[in-house]
Amino acid sequence: MKRLLRSWFVLVGALALALVLGNCARVLGIKPPDVKPFPHTAHLDKGINCRECHGGIANSSNADGTMHIPGTDTCVRCHKKPHDTHDCSNCHGLGYVREAVQADVANLKFDHRSHVQREHGQCVRCHRGILDNSDHVRPTMAVCLSCHEHQDDFAMRTCDRCHKNIRDEHVMPSSHVVHEGDWLREHGDRAASERDLCSTCHAERFCAGCHGVTVPALPEKQAFDDPLRIGVHRAGFMSRHPLEAKTQPGMCTTCHTPDSCENCHTKNSVSPVSGAKSPHPPGWLGLRGEPNDHGRAAWQDPTECASCHSGAGEKLCVGCHKVGGMGGNPHKPGWTSNKRPMFDQPCRQCHGGG
Amino acid sequence: MRRWLLALLIAAALEIAPARAHAEPFQLRADAFVYSQGSGAPTGYVALSGEDKLTPWADTEAVLWAGNGATADALVFLVRLHHPKNWGELRIGRQIISAGAVRPIHIDGADGRVRLPTGTSVEVFGGVPVQPQFQYGAWDWVAGGRAAQALGRSTTIGVSYLQQRDDGALAYEEVGMDFASAPTRWFDVASHAAYDLIDPGLSEARVSLAGRFGPLRPEVFALHRSPSRLLPATSLFSALGDMASDSAGLTLLWKMFPRLDVLPILAARTQDGDAGIDATLRTTLRFDDRGRGAITVDLRRQGSGLDPWSGVRLAVRLPITQRWQASTELELVVPDDNDPNPAVRALQRARGTVWPWALTSVSWSPVQHWQVAGAVEAASTPTSNFEVNALMRLSATWGGGT
User: Which range has the top average pLDDT, A23-27, A81-85, A259-263, B188-192?
Assistant: First the structure.
């Protein structure tokens, strides 16, 4: 009896494990989906030429605006007894593949006629995904470039020889300038040398949306319904921002003006300027021999000091650190400047003698 | 005067837009965005943008927004004229200038570029740095340029220069050098460095080397940043000098399964003898092959700097039907409170030991090119024990855009 029970447990356990693994495989994308792309290879194996179904493609030019995707009437020429009277495309093939194909017709300048003639009807030379029954029917740009030399066009950023309006395509490059990894940090490195390449796909507002001085709301805040959109100020950034600022000194200043912290804090009534309490910890400011942390903190991140004490607030520093003042020399050892101490701002505040 | 100028810009955009929206190359997008905060009155903005490609040598773009009247402004207002074969282009209006290694800047002005088939490119720009509400100083201006040369098919090297004056006083003057190369399909490198000419020294230098090996994309990066040189030279705090921060790290994107990506990011950062480790582990699982639905989990530890913290973030995007989508985002931040100074530790604890934040949203596209989205956001922050916001957005496009 025990042996029987054990066998049952093993059997049930194995079934459960298979179920879990099977679902894992489905979730992870390892197992092919239930909805399959159109079985092109089955037709090729029967010796059916592509042009028998995609009639008219050999004479198709870009101007006619159709991809000659076969309809039910084409299918029933061979499949004389269909299971039902509905359109074959309701179940066979993938709707989004057909949509992508139509989008290509709308967005690309392409002439099938000349290509079919040149390749003697061997469509798979370009449509390589057909051989794998892939849903990726569209040839990649790398396939185009295997015959067409577009290096000069690429260098001159003239994408419009093939792309009617590349910004409207909403496609991500898969063979060059691939946007992956920690792209939020990397994008500046890549854009420094090739900003005009970025602008072939991205409109000006894409850059200005984050880097503009007059930004009404950051893109990730506008697209609050897309939490997978990357952005610097994602999620609870309002809480995190003092921590983030201290982690990367100077980072905020790459976009924000020094006084933007004070402006925002004042506007939202959380500014230490308007309150009676100092935000600084004990031991921040002291006479010689007493704890005095502010100098080192200022050298570590002067942008943080500037965020509250810029403009008129600078007088607070000058009061002690002017030449001959009790605060001593505030310059970091080894610091040099091309400014004229007696004449230029901000030097003359301390060195001007007035 | 400024309000009149802004009103004129908005009126011009509204006047042009509907008339030409019927022409296929022209696009118009409008967004209305409203949010409520527990402590403030509802506010919002409207953004309009358009592109005109009726002529092959010119296009335009504008993004204008209106708040409660006092905050209305323009983000982009640009006309771009270019040679049909892109040998040269001229951009006039409000725009972002990003010329090589020198800092990106938002200007009202002009940017001209000449490109030659030899791979040579020369760019010159000038104008007035953008100020909110057009509140320019009397002698505010910025000018600069970049010269670049392509070396072979995959390498570009460039030098750039920028000078900015605020009220006539020199605020920024820097030169930069940038380099990018993708010698093979599996390796590329990008780097740039900017040198401050006013307080001589390296203001920022960055390098990133990335490779591609099947499902793996490793990247090594390094960064040097001098905070005082990022401030305008007219600021007293630029004259202190600073202890620059240096960091170096590694990211490794692993496309572990067709729908599962794992991205660990590890960086070491040093400043003034203090060193720390920053680490992030980001995992993204897509619910379908196209990634319409997905879940991502971020684990973060920021161990460097004066205020270390740890956090976790969960984000889910779930398409319910073709027209409906739901999403949610949760974040927990736990700041460290182990400062050796008991008084500082007490201050740290006073702002809360855990900062939770959550947002749940639903979006609906009743017809093509129209979308409505609404969300509720709740958080406990260092300044408020509990706050709730409601957010709403209405978006529409005309003329072929999506």
Answer: B188-192
Across the interface, of A204, A216, A349, the residue whose CB is closest to B61 is: A204
The answer to whether the Cβ–Cβ distance between B335 and A211 falls below 8 Å is no
Please classify residue B153 by burial: count the beta carbons closer than 10 Å to its beta carbon, then call 0-12 exposed, 13-18 middle and 19+ buried: exposed
Per-residue pLDDT, A269: 67
Q: Which residues share a beta bridge with B315?
A: B296, B329
pLDDT at A189 > cutoff 50: yes
In this predicted model, what pLDDT tens digit does every residue of A314-349 receive, in sequence order? 888 888 888 888 888 888 888 888 888 888 888 888
- Chain-centre distance of CA A172, in angstroms? 9
* Rounded mean pLDDT, A46-73: 78
Closest to B66 measured CA to CA, from B40, B48, B41: B48
Write the pLDDT tens digit of every residue in B279-314: 999 999 999 877 889 999 999 999 887 788 999 999
Write out the H or E segment, with its range, that includes residue B2.
helix B2-20
Rounded to whole angstroms, how far apart are CA atoms B313 and B332?
Answer: 6
Put simply, the answer to whether B156 touches A236 (Cβ < 8 Å) is no
Helix (H) or strand (E) holding B345: helix B342-350
Task: Specify which residues B328 forms β-bridges with.
Answer: B316, B360
CA distance A201 to A212: 19
Instruction: Tell which residue, B202, B126, B395, B230, has the closest CA to residue A226.
Output: B395
Question: Would you call A339 and B199 a contact, using CB atoms and an 8 Å cutoff?
Answer: yes
Could you please report the per-residue DSSP string of B152-185?
A: TTTEEEEEEEEEEEETTEEEEEEEEEEEEEEEET
The values of phi and psi at residue B288, to 5°, are: -145, 170
| Alpha-carbon span B253 to B138, nearest angstrom | 50
Interface residue of B98, B174, B236 to substitute, partner A, most A CBs within 10 Å: B236
Q: Beta B120-129 vs B141-151: how paired, if at all?
A: antiparallel
Q: State the DSSP H helix or E strand holding residue B143, giving kind and residue range, or none if neither.
A: strand B141-151
> How many CB atoms neighbour CB A251 within 10 A?
20
Query: Is residue B181 pLDDT above 60, yes or no?
Result: yes
Contact B393 A96 (CB under 8 A): no
ipTM reported for the complex, 2 dp: 0.86
Q: Which of A228-237, B342-351, B375-384 has the lowest mean pLDDT?
A: B342-351
Instruction: Round to whole Å and give the CA distance between B182 and B392.
Output: 43
Q: Does A323 touch chain B (CB under 8 A)?
A: no
A152 vs B75, B99, B117: nearest CB = B117
Residue B75: closest C-alpha in chain A: A214
CA–CA dist A25, A6 (Å, integer): 28
